[in-house]
Amino acid sequence: MAIKYELIKECKQTGARLGKIHTPHGTIETPIFMPVGTQATVKSMTPEELKEIESQIILSNTYHLYLRPGHDLVEKAGGLHKFMNWDRPILTDSGGFQVFSLGDLRKISEEGVEFRSHIDGSKHFISPEKAIEIQNSLGSDIIMAFDECAPYPADREYVKNSLERTTRWAKRCKKAHKNTDTQGLFGIIQGGIYKDMREQSAKEITELDFPGYAVGGLSVGEPKPLMYEVLEYTTPLMPKNKPRYLMGVGSPDCLIEGVIRGIDMFDCVLPTRIARNGTAMTSQGRVTIKQARFYDDFTPLDPECDCYTCRNYTKAYLRHLFKANEILSARLFSYHNLYFLLKLMKNIREAIKNDNLLDYRKEFFEKYGYEL
Ligand SMILES: CC1(C)O[C@H]2[C@@H](O1)[C@@]1(COC(C)(C)O1)O[C@@H]2CNc1nc2cc3nc(N)[nH]c(=O)c3cc2[nH]1
């Protein structure tokens, strides 16, 4: 079996869990944050730097790699691990979300989705079978079913039709998936913000018996309390002995709140995206370095952080790099932000172990400036 989940401990106070996911490229300790490497690179980071900050698994993307450089080339290179020189686990998203949020959407049918490339406007068609074929070529350890991520807001009728098509597509993905012994196919639960529809989608998708399940259709612009509410009634419907993955979530508060509600895996472009805008996640909240007040501030980005960036550079220098549009700026901010989130997940795992996750949340929120 490609993917095996080991439930280590259930938190006494919350829905949080400690676990291990065994994959052909190594074991992942959960709860975990997965850095996003959309085009076969976590932007500006080398694989060695990702290992230095203890990144256990990274994400890449079917839609992007299909369009460029083409999954055939990656297969010819010996697969994505070899192509990008990353020998630890990789998860690939199926392209469902990207087609809807990136491509110039042409039309969606029972067969699949026709769209125009965001790169050159060329016309393409991706079916559930095609999305699986591409991921089988890439050779990622965890692959995702081809689904429709309903937009927010969307009315009940749209969400119901969309989740039922997602179920039919999930069955087609399961049938098309070839490498079941080396690649684990995760199902994706949809249903928008409607409890009865989340229940229907969870039932239909978990009946298909995948090695892991994602909660899709969230982090699409809905208010955070609404996302937490959906998780509250959705994760209990997901098997305890399988990993639970919340797609597209990556701010510190959402990670903690998601773990408390039973989520094991997260991904988001946020840490690397805001890094390129000179914004850091720090123990005292966000720091946006372009502010004039940092001109002659010779203290580290985050006094409580022991990462390479914080040990070797000052805010004044980092502000200079950002203002001068230096490439090193993106690198040093990306390194710190990823380190910050991975360290947060390590602290969360520790707090679950010591049964004090709620105290940890309180302390973190007070310092970071979140309201409980
Ligand atoms: C950078 C940032 C914060 O990450 C968010 C947010 O912007 C942004 C960027 O476009 C909007 C929509 C406005 O939301 O979507 C980013 C991540 N949210 C997300 N990624 C997802 C990926 C998904 N993949 C699949 N296959 N199925 C899903 O249901 C799914 C849902 C997802 N939700």
List the helices and strands and how they pair.
Layout: E1 4-10, E2 17-23, E3 26-30, E4 32-35, H1 47-52, E5 58-61, H2 62-67, H3 71-76, H4 80-83, E6 90-93, H5 96-101, E7 104-108, E8 113-116, E9 123-126, H6 128-138, E10 142-144, H7 156-176, E11 184-189, H8 195-206, E12 213-215, H9 224-234, E13 244-246, H10 252-260, E14 265-268, H11 270-275, E15 279-282, E16 285-288, H12 308-312, H13 315-323, H14 327-353, H15 357-368
Parallel strand pairs: 4-14, 5-6, 6-10, 10-11, 11-12, 12-13, 13-14
Antiparallel strand pairs: 1-2, 2-3, 7-8, 8-9, 15-16
Helix pairs in contact: 6-7, 7-8, 10-14, 10-15, 13-14
This protein binds ligand 6MM.
Notes on the structure:
- With 372 residues, this protein is of the alpha/beta class.
- It folds into two domains: 4-267, Queuine tRNA-ribosyltransferase-like (TIM Barrel, Alpha-Beta Barrel), CATH 3.20.20; 275-371, no CATH class.
- Helix content is 41%, strand content 19%.
- The chain is built from 15 helices and 16 strands.
- The chain has helices at residues 47-52, 62-67, 71-76, 80-83, 96-101, 128-138, 156-176, 195-206, 224-234, 252-260, 270-275, 308-312, 315-323, 327-353, 357-368, and strands at residues 4-10, 17-23, 26-30, 32-35, 58-61, 90-93, 104-108, 113-116, 123-126, 142-144, 184-189, 213-215, 244-246, 265-268, 279-282, 285-288.
- An eight-stranded parallel β-sheet has the order 4-14-13-12-11-10-6-5.
- Helix 10 runs parallel beside helix 14 (327-353).
- The N and C termini lie far apart (41 Å).
- The model has no long low-confidence stretch (mean pLDDT 97).
- The chain binds the ligand CC1(C)O[C@H]2[C@@H](O1)[C@@]1(COC(C)(C)O1)O[C@@H]2CNc1nc2cc3nc(N)[nH]c(=O)c3cc2[nH]1.
- The ligand CC1(C)O[C@H]2[C@@H](O1)[C@@]1(COC(C)(C)O1)O[C@@H]2CNc1nc2cc3nc(N)[nH]c(=O)c3cc2[nH]1 binds at residues 93-94, 96-97, 101, 144, 147, 149, 188, 216-217, 219-221, 247-248, 268-270, 273.
